[in-house]
């Protein structure tokens, strides 16, 4: 008879990365995912803010042109793109409220603690 090893039922090994983080029912893991996602979207929203502040740094239009690219010759006139400004302001507000503040506070901290 071969030697059989007797193992306990609690030795199932550790879950992999995907299983641990994306298939978890642990409230602390879910809270960390909420906070991580809010931080990533927060960095994107801050990039929008920096771009808007870059435009407001000096009088006149510097970056948001209708021509699509700011690599214009010195004598060319930049036609202001008000639509891009409105899109950035709206996207910044929506991202900060619905993808950063609410998920981080209620989803992240609510699940973690």
Write up this protein.
- The chain has 113 residues and is mostly helical.
- The protein has one domain.
- Helix content is 59%, strand content 0%.
- It contains three helices and no strands.
- It has helices spanning 17-22, 27-56, 82-112.
- α2 (27-56) packs antiparallel against α3.
- It is elongated, with a radius of gyration of 25 Å.
- The N and C termini lie far apart (53 Å).
Question: What key attributes describe this structure?
Answer:
mainly alpha; 113 residues; elongated
What count of domains describes the coordinates?
Answer: 1
Structural class call reads: mainly alpha
The largest sheet is:
none
* Percentage beta strand: under 5%
Blueprint (SSEs and pairs):
Blueprint: H1 17-22, H2 27-56, H3 82-112
Helix pairs in contact: 2-3
Give a short synopsis of this structure:
With 113 residues, the protein is mainly α. 6% of the residues are buried. The chain contains three helices and no strands.
């Amino acid at each position: 008879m071969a030697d059989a090893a007797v193992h306990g039922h609690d030795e199932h090994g550790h879950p992999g990365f995907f299983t641990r983080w994306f298939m978890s029912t642990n409230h602390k893991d879910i809270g960390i995912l909420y906070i991580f996602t809010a931080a990533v979207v927060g960095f994107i929203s801050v990039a929008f803010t920096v771009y808007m502040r870059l435009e407001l740094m000096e009088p006149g239009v510097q970056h948001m042109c209708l021509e699509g690219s700011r690599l214009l010759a010195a004598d060319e006139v930049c036609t202001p793109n008000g639509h891009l400004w409105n899109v950035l302001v709206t996207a910044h507000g929506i991202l900060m409220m619905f993808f950063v503040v609410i998920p981080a506070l209620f989803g992240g901290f609510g699940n973690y603690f």
